[in-house]
Amino acid sequence: MGDLSAVDVPADFEREFPGASRSATLVAANLVRTATDLLAAIERPPREAVGLSVSAFQVLVVLDGAGEPLTGQAIAEELLVTSASMTSLLDTLQRRGLVERRPHPTDRRKILIHLTEQAQRTVDLQLPAVHGSITQAMADLTEAEREQFLDSLTKMRAGLTRLAAQPTPTFKARRKRRARPGPTTA
Amino acid sequence: MGDLSAVDVPADFEREFPGASRSATLVAANLVRTATDLLAAIERPPREAVGLSVSAFQVLVVLDGAGEPLTGQAIAEELLVTSASMTSLLDTLQRRGLVERRPHPTDRRKILIHLTEQAQRTVDLQLPAVHGSITQAMADLTEAEREQFLDSLTKMRAGLTRLAAQPTPTFKARRKRRARPGPTTA
DNA sequence: TATTGTTATACTCTATAACTATA
DNA sequence: TATAGTTATAGAGTATAACAATA
């Protein structure tokens, strides 16, 4: 299981990947691991209590967050899926009585997706648990640490933006790895 | 798109969710967002260049990381999938010539999964790009910031561990949200 | 009896392409 | 012509249950 242990990176990492930074990799690996563990601990239980997939649950959260009905296309853009995939997701949600499709009042090509009362009750019930869990999970961090953490995340996104803007760079080849005292095959 | 912008949380968040912390939610939301963007920028391109799903690519990385053949079950435990799902994943990889199944030398119930030379070449080619991109994405963070960041992640995992250990707590009910100046429906 | 892996079956998500209705 | 949504089709990942071979 992502057993809430830290990810390590071998001491000879920078020998194996010339030009790469071990501390950067440590940060990236543990960032992803912790985000995964956070989602598993916080978002998954309420989502599975409702018996929905990640995407289907996201549709409900997006609709709740908007606070008003949205067109299928608007939700599809938020979730980064095609309109055909959206149709399928809405079919699933409608079958379970969580959304309704209603005609758009002025543009008859469009439909408006409404949360049902049942869905709204469900979201109202689950979101406090989500936010309460998050609050407890972060309890050990001071406000100063939280600000510093957000600042570091901002720097990473700046780095990612730079990375996306530049042509794919070339990297030095991997070097052969030294034998490690790995566990023998089960 | 997760357009590399920060996630915000409404100013009246703590009124809507009594007992929840806005700064904790900011940290959690941006942690997840940044981790997602990082994966999209770093891991997705090499993976899609090879034409593999997340799970299939992970199988290759796990085998490469182990540095030796593994049983199907060992990989399945690493990826948190059932043995039946593992069979399906290995079928896909074997069809593409990326792994081989060979009998275990002493226990005839088991099979050992080997990376093919082609798969090893692929991994050797893609991993330097992954680690180089990570190094560039993190370039703005000083070593001190990286250590502080890892420290904060450790505290979060401690919080998650506590959370998992305790019985599910109850949370105060959500309060009705004030109307927001949301975008009018498309 | 327990473990490893496969097969059979089913469901969901996802995509592309072709289509209808509407603007 | 362009947009919104659906249908048809297909592929991948995942799961559960039943099963065979082996330990």
Tell me what you see in this structure.
The structure is a homodimer of 186-residue chains. By secondary structure, chain A is mainly alpha-helical. Chain A has a domain at 53-160: Arc Repressor Mutant, subunit A. Helix content of chain A is 59%, strand content 6%. Chain A contains eight helices and three strands. In chain A, strands 1-3-2 form a three-stranded antiparallel beta sheet. The mean pLDDT of chain A is 92. Chain A binds a DNA duplex (23 and 23 nucleotides) through residues 53-56, 71-73, 81-89, 92, 104, 107-111.
CATH class of one domain in chain A: Mainly Alpha
Relative helix content of chain A: 55-70%
**Global structural class of chain A:** mainly alpha
Give me the CATH fold name of one domain in chain A.
Answer: Arc Repressor Mutant, subunit A
The tally of beta strands of chain A, per DSSP, is: 3
Principal-axes geometry of chain A comes out as elongated
CATH homologous superfamily placement of one domain in chain A = Winged helix-like DNA-binding domain superfamily/Winged helix DNA-binding domain
> What is the chains' assembly state?
homodimer
Q: Largest interface here, residues on each chain?
A: A-B, 84 and 84 residues
The total count of helices of chain A amounts to 8
Biggest sheet of chain A, strands in spatial order?
A: 1-3-2
Radius of gyration of chain A: 22 Å
CATH architecture of one domain in chain A: Orthogonal Bundle
Strand content of chain A: 5-15%
Largest sheet features of chain A: 3 strands, antiparallel
